[in-house]
Amino acid sequence: MVDSDGLHSAIAAQIEAFTTAGGTGVRSVLVKTLDGPRLTVAHRADLVLPAASLTKMILGVALFDSAERGELDPDERVRIGALPGTMYPSVLQALDPDSTVTVRELCGFALVTSDNPAAEHVRAVLGQERIDATIKAVGLHSTTFPAGFSERELGPLGRANTTTAEDMLRLVEYIDRTPHLEPVRRYLVNYLRNDRIPSRLDDDVPVRHKTGSLRGIVNDAGIVLHPAHRVAMVFLTEGQADNVRTAQEIGEVSERIVRIIAEGSAL
Description:
CATH topology: Beta-lactamase
Pfam families: Beta-lactamase2
CATH architecture: 3-Layer(aba) Sandwich
Number of domains: 1
InterPro entries: Beta-lactam/transpept-like, Beta-lactam_cat, Beta-lactam_class-A
Domain Beta-lactamase class A catalytic: 28-235
Helix content: 40-55%
Strand content: 15-25%
Number of strands: 9
Protein name: Serine hydrolase
Organism: Kitasatospora xanthocidica
Strand order of the largest sheet: 2-1-9-8-7
CATH class: Alpha Beta
């Protein structure tokens, strides 16, 4: 096995190359191995940046934590036609307006497809007090979540939702270890937008993650469920000149880091 200092240096070199490649804007990165050689490698992981749709993971945690305490019923049914509309594509458009789904299923839509109307309804069911209590309970000390996912909040107002790579690591680890959050784990491992962390990994390597995007913002946070070791990764950015290129670079550096850890662990 390669010594931990060697692995740390190799991963740090990859992160440095990624954080300096963009030219403009800022990039925050945090990588932590959850199995095998225990390593944490970070670049500006305490930097507060817009969270974008990463906050939808907080909704999932708040919903099932609240249900576990008996504070709400996640199986309450909602009529599709009663949900807010959106100018963006929505999975809910495939359903009859008179059909009903549960709040639990809307949470699933929000985390599997990043559907905004579904997320906005879950947010309304929870209320700001429960959301803020979840942020405090999980220890997300630098995270704010005052805005939702309505049309008017997807522009400048959406940037009011902020976080750090350190907080997002705490969140994905909390989801990973908490038994009653199994539905959230299932939703995240089936997330359909795989253009970042998973994009260059082998198809048989599951990734439990959630992306977040606004103009100039390309985020991703989750856990690579490699059969030999699990690796938590968080990427937060702001001021990116080309969102598509930044997403590609996240995929490239993620693949290199996972390969370095796998090869180092095997030696």
